[in-house]
Amino acid sequence: MTATTAVVAPAPVDRKRTGYLRYGAGKLGGALISLVAVLVTGFFLFRIIPGDPVKAMTHGMPTSAEQLATLRGQFGLDLPLWRQFTDYCGKALTGDLGLSYQFHAPVGELIAQKLPATLLLTGTAVLLYSTLGLWLGTRSAWRHGGRADRLTTGVALTLWSVPSFWLGLLLIITFAVGVGPLPGLFPTGGMESGGERGFAYAIDVAHHLVLPVLTLVAVGYAQTLLVVRSSLLDEMGGDYLTTARAKGLRDAAVRRRHAVPNALLPTVTMVFINLGHVVAGSILVETVFSWPGLGGLFYQALSVPDLPLVQGLFIVFAGAMIVMNLLADLIYPLLDPRVRR
Amino acid sequence: MTTPLVWARRRDSLTRFWGTYRQQRTGLWGLTALLVIGAVALATPLLTDGDLRSVADAPGGPLEAPSGAFWLGTDQFGRSLLGLLLWGARISLAVGLLAAVLSVGIGTLVGVIAGHYGGWFATALMRVTDWFLVMPALVLAIVLATVMSRSLWTVVIAIGVTSWPTTARLVRAQTLAVESRPYIERAKALGGGHGHIMSRHVLPNVMPLVLAQTTLGISTAILTEATLAFLGLGDPAVVSWGGMLQDAREAGAVSSGHWWYLAPPGVAIALVAVAFTLCGRAVESVLNPRLGAVR
Amino acid sequence: MATELSARMRHTLAFGVAVLVAALSAQPVRAADDGERVLSVAVSQSVDSLSPFLAQRLVAITVHRLIYENLTNYDVRDGRAIPGLATAWTSSPSKLIWTYTIRSNSRWSDGEPVTAEDAAWTFNTMMSDPRAATANGSFTANFRKVTAPDPRTLVIELKKPQATMLALDVPIVPKHQWEKVRNFSSFNNDQKFPIVGNGPFILTDFQVDRFIRLRPNKDFWRGAPHFDELVLTYYKDGDAAVAALRKGEVSFVPGLTPAQASALSRTERIKVNDAPGRRFLALATNPGARSQDGQRFGSGHRALLDPGVRKALFHATDRRTIVEKVFRGHAVEGAGYIPPRFTPYFWKPPAGQRIGYEPGKAAELLDQAGYRRKGNGKRRDKNGRPLEFRVLCHATDPNDKAIGRYLQEWWGRLGIGLQLDCRDNVSDPWLSGDYDLAFDGWSVSPDPDFVLSIHTCAALPATARDTGSTDNFICDRRFDELYAKQSVEYDAPQRAELVKKMQSRLYDTGYLNILAYPNAVEAYRTDQIASITTMPESGGNIWGQDGYWSWWSAKPAAGAGAGASGQPSAAAVLSGMGTALAGAALVAAVIGWRRRATADDRE
After folding, report:
1. Which of A93, A161, A258, C220 qualifies as a cystine partner to B274, CB 3.0-4.6 A?
2. How many percent of chain A have pLDDT more than 70?
3. Where is the ABC transmembrane type-1 domain (chain B) (predicted)?
């Protein structure tokens, strides 16, 4: 919640078209600089991880100095640091993120293999919890201070303070293992039972998706709710609402036609930012539910340490955040009716 | 220095602050909960005899269900889970507090400096801040915790270093607002140096904001601590709530149905996190009623 | 995003939600319900590669045993070498030339016959291309020449005698499929399915961290496996795997914790197999890391060079408590180096030699060694520095951490400080000798040559810059003499006697304190698997055998069928539908209540 209040601050925008272009170019430039910075940090951050990957790879096998040298050569670890860096930058720009030490496969390929699973999980979750947060947030704000508002906000805050992995484990116990007379209704983990095709496969995946998505939604919707609620409260002080009411419009109509669209703005921005966040944040839920996505891969890569893979994932995670922030920045002025007016 | 006057004024504003805070019902709930938990955490070593954390002298059998002797049952070493839960409060609170203080400290420093000096220096500083803001904090914290040796301080640093940018931005905005006030002009004209202005005028004015940020930060820090411990990046010799959850999972408590091992640490984490969030939001809305945060 | 929905839309929504809940909470009925008998196994370790030239992880090696054959196999009863791809073998008197006869009744799954040329090509590739030697290069490092004079004869010439010639765990691959491979370090054998092999199973599909599917090889010379399909399914979380077993989603789960085992042993239709393990868990002492050229390196504690101190630490370690408390009885108390499962080689220190748990004696020994303490303080050396050890442990192994906590307390009472240094990756401090003590463990093969060789001087790294095969930098002249004797001793009882003497010597040095032999604790559903062969056949384990016995021999039970992957019972379906209905009712109730609430607002 604290992070968003800072990020979602609307940027001042010129009304003219050229103004928007200039604004867009500025944001684009900023994002590019950030991406380069990520690339650079990605490289150096993971050189300070203690450990000689080649020795880790060969632990327990008799390996001569020459063999170690060959391996180092194979992974380009024998070059001076600056050469490794330039090689890495050159390759990264063409989309080549190197070869994973433990899987002997191109990092890009590994990430591409696991990306759909993560996108499915996080995309569904963000969509659901944004909708839920928007709905509850609007209702809460409209009758703020009332019992329903206090209850909604209280429940959301509590769920938000719950560790997601813990909630996931509890859901597994309750709904996957089964408690008492309640049988295990949902699968305990993974993404598919295997063997199904077509529609049956889709249902099967959806079946596996329920508990992890539920976990993410429960922990995540509070943020949307609070942002929607507070921006609506801000809007409700606005003169135009009083005018609208004075015109004799019904409460519901005022809410639907006037207040909500304005409060929607920060929500849209937040959906994008959340998408960026959640990709990295699903590490825990993916671990608990054995979901075959990027989060699990990241954790696995760190323990070797499989530098190219960790590096590649870091770039993907941070890159996703930057791109999503950029999109939010670019879309915000387009949506703002005060700009279009 | 006109110290008595200043003190009187500060006492005044504190009283006023408390007066408004008192009206925030949820804020009071949060504060009460925190005071109780804090008192229990501090008193734990006095209330119990012997070292609760000892595995060799553990009083019970492994993974016992709740009973009269062990209200919450025992862990795989036969230690009382209630005792561990109480003891874990000390660690979780300490780590949360230290990490939040570190994070807000860095944020305030960066924010005040960037706000005060302005120019290309501030631009560069805020560029770095923005960049940290888009970094996936958990990923960065995990990497840091992996790089450094397993200890409590590692966790504190990993959390503190990755979570300061929000504070920096808020503090910078506040600093800019404060510095545009006329009395700062006056102070400058009277020959007040950068250090004087920052510490005497800007800092007291951003302090309330910093307080709110710290309170909110603690709940995030406690959650992150639990997360890192759960991923096995904490100090295995230290009893913390996150560590207990990790122990429970490693012992296979989930599938063997030992819910009494799993539930209490999570509830405790959520309770403390909610309490801090409520306090933070109450402070926030006292300072900025337009936010209308909680009520 | 309209928040005010018309009444009709609300009903549609409620109905939609109800249908969705119903669809999702009922277990999906398998599409292909044609009576296929599926054996599914829960695994957690990721496959590092499906190429036998690269794969080093247990799960990949297990799969390779199922789809390719090695020259020899291990007898399911006692683990001695028996025919595999080779039906017979002879060695020259000098033990330098080995001739294998390749069986004629083995075919690749694409129809081509398996010949000696395939085996020769496999070995030659590993010898000539370092990239192909990644996984099993140690087997061929000593090969001089490998030839196939005719399709049924394979000849291997050695540089010096090699004890593992009947235990060459190298999968033989089809030359006609593999000779097209350009770069062995990046070819993972996972692009084209089914993978051409000659083992009891054929790998038909694979998705990283999701599943590995295998079909029985109907033409397998020993006879086809009984299940219609074998699926290794991924559960990264052990609890999730156990939950899946309870529900019948999987048929078999390995690597249970004591709590899981005791909970499952009380569950109907599930059999817990608690078998003596092939691993030992030890506390290794850094004897002063060094290379063969005599250079010393690392930062091992000087006090540990004193045999008295090492003996004191032995005396201060309560192995029985470790077995009882940490393993909760699912382990055997540590004694000699080789686990009791390998009966011919098992050695136990006699009463006079045994170093038991005697803290008093430990204190005495430490006093004698010059590490004295005042009152309850830390022990200090002559220069007044406190006695403190670092213990390297695996952050991912709960047992390491648990035992570490006990050691901290036991040794702490004696005035010895102990710092647990738990890491994900222990290789670096380990290989550079930067540790005082370390948790150590090896899986022992039926032939103990390898696990003994890693404690000889020859296993030390050649220079400080190399990596040796040494486990713990142990280099002891008497141990080496015995090792040399046993490796040329071909009389089995005589050799076993020598191996026992080596263990006795190792015990006396105090460099390696064998704490326990953890059991292999695994469980399977008896309503899906009617019978399965363990190894050794009486009371052995199932997962991670030397050979394909368990999965090849497993017979489906009456209940197997499609249920192996989760056919819902009638009760589950009913209660699922009940829950769905309840959920729908709840949604409807909430909406109804909310409508009433909003009605008040509408004047």
Report:
1. A161
2. 79
3. 89-280
Are the CB atoms for A273 and A4 separated by under 8 Å? yes
List chain C residues with CB under 8 Å of B250: 257, 398
> Which residue is listed with tokens 């003219």?
A16
Contact list, A314 vs chain B (CB under 8 Å)? 139, 143
List the single best residue of A128, A135, A193, A196 to mutate versus C (max C Cβ within 10 A).
A193
List for chain B the helix, strand, coil content (%; round to 5).
75, 0, 25
Chain B residue with minimum CA distance to C395 = B232
CA B255 – CA B250 distance, rounded (Å): 11
Contact with chain C for residue B231, Cβ under 8 A: no
* Out of A91-100, A146-155, C115-124, C258-267, least confident range: A91-100
pLDDT in tens, C346-375: 999 999 999 999 999 999 999 999 999 888
DSSP C170-219: -----HHHHTT-S-TTT--S-SSSSPP--SSEEEEEEETTTEEEEEE-TT
Question: Which of A55, A61, A178 is the closest to C469 by Cβ?
Answer: A61
Number of domains into which chain B is organized:
1
Question: Which regions of chain B are under pLDDT 70?
Answer: 1-3, 49-50, 288-295
**C436: Cα within 13 Å, side-chain hemisphere:** 19
* pLDDT tens figures, C114-155: 999 999 999 999 999 888 887 888 788 889 999 999 999 999
Residue of A nearest to B290 (CA): A234
Contacts of A33 in chain B (CB under 8 A): 127
C193-222 residue pLDDT tens: 999 999 999 999 998 888 999 999 999 999
Residue C14 has pLDDT above 80, yes or no: no
Domain residues for the domain of B124 are 18-45+72-291
pLDDT tens column, A196-248: 777 888 888 999 999 999 999 998 888 888 888 887 887 776 666 667 767 76
Q: What is the DSSP letter of C459?
A: G
Query: Which pLDDT belongs to residue C98?
Result: 95
What is the rounded average pLDDT for all residues in chain C?
Answer: 85
| Half-sphere exposure at residue A237, Cβ-oriented, CA atoms within 13 angstroms | 9
Residue A55 · residue C427 · CB < 8 Å:
yes
Give yes or no for a contact between C157 and C103, defined as CB atoms under 8 angstroms apart: no
Determine, for residues A310 and B294 on separate chains, whether the beta-carbon distance falls below 8 Å: no
Positive or negative, the CA dihedral A326, A332, A334, A339 is negative
Q: What is the pLDDT of residue C33?
A: 47
pTM value?
A: 0.82
For residue B27, the domain's CATH number is 1.10.3720.10
Using the predicted structure, report yes or no on whether residue C412 has a pLDDT greater than 50: yes
- Tell me if C592 sits within 8 A of A219, measured CB to CB: no
Q: Which of A101, A104, A201 to mutate to test the interface with C (most CBs of C within 10 A)?
A: A104
CATH class as words, domain A24-340: mainly alpha
Alpha-carbon span A53 to A19, nearest angstrom: 50
Mutate to test the interface with B, among A165, A167, A284, A287 (most CBs of B within 10 A): A165
Cα C439 to Cα C399: distance, rounded to the nearest angstrom: 10
Token pair belonging to A8: 């979602």
Whether residue B60 lies inside any domain: the answer is no
Does a structural domain hold residue B287? yes
Q: Tell me if B202 is assigned to some domain.
A: yes
Q: Closest to A55 (Cβ–Cβ): which among C243, C427, C572?
A: C427
For chain A, the structural domain boundaries read 24-340
Q: A163 vs B294: CB contact, 8 Å cut-off?
A: no
Q: Which of residues 2-31 of B touch A (CB under 8 A)?
A: 26
Mean pLDDT of chain A: 79
Instruction: Specify if B65 maps to a domain.
Output: no
